[in-house]
Amino acid sequence: MILVTGGAGYIGSHAVVALLQAGQEVVVLDNLCNSSRESLTRVAQIAGRAPRFVHGDIRDRVLLDELFQQWPITAVMHFAGLKAVGESVRDPLRYYQTNVAGSITLCQAMADAGIFQLVFSSSATVYGESVSMPICERCPTGIPTNPYGQSKLMAENVLKTLADSDHRWSIALLRYFNPVGAHESGLIGEDPNGIPNNLLPYMLQVAVGRRPYLNVYGDDYPTPDGTGVRDYIHVLDLVDGHLRALERLALGGGVAVWNLGTGRGCSVLEMVRALEGVTGRALPFRVVARRSGDIAQCWADPTKAERELRWRATRDLRAMLEDAWRWQRLNPHGYQGDVEKAAAALAS
Ligand code: NAD
Ligand code: UDP
Questions:
Q1: From the CA of 201, which ligand is nearest?
Q2: Which of the following is catalytic: 148, 202, 232, 335?
Q3: Ligand 1 touching residue 34 (CB < 6 A)
Q4: How many Å lie between the centroid of ligand 1 and the Cα of residue 6?
Q5: Residue-wise pLDDT tens for the chain (348 aa)?
Q6: Ligand 1 close to Cβ of residue 11 (< 6 A)
């Protein structure tokens, strides 16, 4: 049985579907601070069976101990965390407490329960402003420009020293590039709270008419069209990488870092044109000043994961945008809306 922390969230819910479909038993621990119970109802609809669900916090040691006693858990996929960069600047302690201290509490409870396999959600943000592209795992980590990024780097360092201190640990640090897209069913996807911070969720809300235009943050970067370049990866490819990492952990072996990206960079304007191609509608945008803390470009060298995990992202940008668009049209108000009504309205 696999414990999935943060399993009601965007990436976690897709991972739970994949685990259930692979025949695993799953228990989800989530405090629902950035997600809803509805996502797991939809997960059950897709997978044909439901994961166990525990409503609670990764910082609650007593609850963790009960959970590890109650279920025959052998490994943990640890998605639970806070991820809003701007909020992390305003409230850094909350970020360190959840992302760093929460991960420590989880590991302490795991060790006491004799569970030593952990897949950790890290981020390409730990590389900071890397000078040469693509970024491979040997590239030095940088100085993340915000407390969110710092918290991921701190958690990585905690996990590295932990694995060095006790060879029973087997830990995968997965550095995600830019996860986008949704399950092909359109039943689960990203449901941001308030004004989206990330590019694609914002573009999708413009495309459905919830926002008038996209702000393109700067067109004077040293990139081919002047706009920021990122490595967008389909969430289903990302999740496949987790399943491969989990298999690999069962073989033992300390701590390993793997980039999960496609190896291809895409600019903001390329994203705009590609989404217009998928929706068949013009996407209004205006160019504004650069967003502070943004880097010009960032894309992965994914060959280490290809070699060691036999994993490679297979879905192209069109698939990412088509799947994201399907989710957005069926759920214009995220999990608050009624997907059946939306589907009927779209069909008529
Ligand atoms: P998400 O917010 O959709 O999911 C995180 C889940 O964790 C939510 O369901 C939330 O309710 C839960 N949670 C938060 N704090 C908790 C706590 N203290 N106890 C229990 N549950 C808690 O985010 P996501 O996009 O699915 O991201 C998952 C992980 O991947 C996060 O750790 C995030 O930092 C990391 N990550 C995400 C991205 C991205 O672009 N989405 C990129 C790199 C890394
Ligand atoms: N971006 C933008 N408008 C937005 C949100 C993002 O132009 O409303 C740009 C941003 O400057 C960056 C790219 O889109 O070049 C990806 O931003 P996102 O926040 O999604 O990812 P991150 O910067 O964290 O990699």
A1: 2
A2: 148
A3: yes
A4: 6
A5: 999 999 999 999 999 999 999 999 999 999 999 999 999 999 999 999 999 999 999 999 999 999 999 999 999 999 999 999 889 999 999 999 999 999 999 999 999 999 999 999 999 999 988 778 999 999 999 988 899 999 999 999 999 999 999 999 999 999 999 999 999 999 999 998 889 999 999 999 999 999 999 999 999 999 999 999 999 999 999 999 999 999 999 888 899 999 999 999 999 999 999 999 999 999 999 999 999 888 999 999 999 999 999 999 999 999 999 999 999 999 988 998 777 776 776 676
A6: yes
Atom of ligand 2 nearest to the CA of 298: 25
Pairing state of beta strands 2-5 and 26-30?
A: parallel
272-280 long-range contacts (CB < 8 A, ≥24 apart) are 272/203, 272/214, 272/216, 274/317, 274/318, 274/321, 275/200, 275/203, 275/204, 275/207, 275/321, 275/325, 277/318, 277/321, 278/318, 278/321, 278/322, 278/325, 279/207, 279/325
59 in contact with ligand 1, CB cutoff 6 A:
yes
Topology classification of domain 2-347: Rossmann fold (3.40.50)
Q: Is 148 a catalytic residue?
A: yes
